[in-house]
Amino acid sequence: MADNKAKSTKPVNKTPPKSPSDPAKDRAAKRLSYDSNSSHEGAMAGEISALEEAFRKFAIHGDTRATGKEMHGKNWSKLCKDCHVIDGKNVTITDVDIVFSKIKGKSSRTITFEQFKEALQELSKKRFKDKSDEEAVQEIYKLIEGKAPIISGVTKAISSPTVSRLTDTSKFTGSHKERFDPSGKGKGKAGREDLVDASGYVSGYKHAGTYDHKVQGSK
């Protein structure tokens, strides 16, 4: 009898059974979470990529041997100027130089991309004083992302009365005038050489070629 009672005694499972879940809803929830994380990471990667691309373009500017991984002080100053980080009020060229000297190593003449971001963080506090530290950094990033060095020294066409007078064919005189027709188009060889006029009309006669029309009209 004792053995039967011992066999019949079993531990009771008091854990309530799990409610059946919908597999379709679980899959949808997982997919939504994955898409959300992927889009967030993609946005961050795109932002960093744009900033790194700008850093690389300015880092190699004017130096054919540069790899784009490090930036000299001269190019750092140009970046701050071309991208309007320097506004002449909150951030000046002196501020830019001071931050560069502070961030770079003592024996180094360049800064890496990570040091570049540290320098921007320093300047963002001065450039955007009315914003939080995080917002200020994002704003200064926007000034730089997608930008490239501005090429200076390109010769531009200058318009002046002297140039206009020399290029206005309607004001030409003498042999120069004969090289162009009334519309300003060059006559080519006819304007440079004295060609024999066999039309029978006096040179320069305005009504040349109208005789035949008059004779035919009178018949």
Describe the protein's architecture and organization:
- Helix content is 53%, strand content 3%.
- It has 219 residues and is mostly helical.
- The chain has a domain at 48-141: Recoverin, domain 1 (Orthogonal Bundle), CATH 1.10.238.
- The chain has a two-stranded antiparallel sheet with strand order 1-2.
- Helix 5 (113-127) packs across helix 6 (133-144).
- The protein is rod-shaped, with a radius of gyration of 41 Å.
- The model is unreliable at 38-47 (pLDDT under 50).
The amount of beta strand, in percent, is under 5%
Mean pLDDT rating = 75
Order of helices and strands: HHEHHEHHHHHH
What is the architecture of one domain at the second tier of CATH? Orthogonal Bundle
Low-confidence stretches: 38-47
- Would you count the extended β strands for me? 2
Distance from N terminus to C terminus (CA atoms, Å) equals: 153 Å
Radius of gyration, whole Å: 41 Å
The named CATH superfamily of one domain: EF-hand
How many strands, which pairing sense, and closed or not: the largest β-sheet? 2 strands, antiparallel
In CATH, the topology of one domain is named Recoverin, domain 1
CATH class term of one domain: Mainly Alpha
Query: What is the percent of helical residues?
Result: 40-55%
Class based on secondary structure composition and strand pairing? mainly alpha
Q: Total helix count?
A: 10
Q: How do the strands of the widest beta sheet line up side by side?
A: 1-2
Overall morphology:
rod-shaped
Subcellular location: Cytoplasm
Organism: Aquila chrysaetos chrysaetos
Family: Belongs to the TPPP family.
InterPro entries: Cyt_c-like_dom, EF-hand-dom_pair, TPP/p25
